[in-house]
Amino acid sequence: MSRTISPDTSRSGTGRADRVVNYRNTIFKIFEIGVQGQFRGADSNGVGGSLQLTILPGVKIGGTVTHTNWSATTQGLVRGLGGNADYAAIGARIDWRILQLGLVYSHQNDGDMVQVPIGSALIPVAFDANGVELYVRAGVRQFGVIGGFTYLEPDVKDPLLDPDFKTGYLILGGEWFVARTAKIYTESKID
């Protein structure tokens, strides 16, 4: 998330997108814009946009919004899904010598879900949430070490969810640029 602020989302708003049309452009070497449409058929479709501004060499700020249209079938299957999903995020990134730092704040409506075990069944429950992610990368030449912290605080409204339900974890990883435009990358979550 904080590596770049862009409209790249999967159908649930996280990860990488598939079945998309994407446009990106840089204007005057300081504005980066992105627009994306995702077309998954009857299940869900979405649109997103982003804007980043380079305010100093190595310092960027930006924001993104994404909207996902859930199908009537999905809305009927997921408890607490009050409608379509909306995501918004703002953030900053600093690149300084061998260090890269990023911080992103996000807000989502009907944008995340947890599976709650009830007897032998898993009941999907949607929720709204606010989150923050800190990203740190230290690298020398083609090698880098990655660390960070992600925290998500749901707005718990459904009685199936624990009122104290929160998500927080550390991120640890590494990367190796085997060529200028190709890398090997791994990342792990530490709860």
What does the main sheet amount to? 10 strands, antiparallel
Q: What pattern of helices and strands is seen along the backbone?
A: EEEEHEEEEEE
Shape: globular
Average pLDDT, all residues: 87
Q: Tell me the fraction of residues in β-strands, as a range.
A: over 45%
Q: What is the helix content?
A: under 10%
Structural class: mainly beta
Number of strands: 10
Short description:
Helices cover 3% and strands 68% of the residues.
Your description of this structure?
3% of the residues lie in helices and 68% in strands. By secondary structure, the chain is mainly beta. It has a 10-stranded antiparallel β-sheet. Strand 5 and strand 6 form a beta hairpin. The longest helix has 6 residues, at 72-77. Residues 1-15 have low confidence and may be disordered.
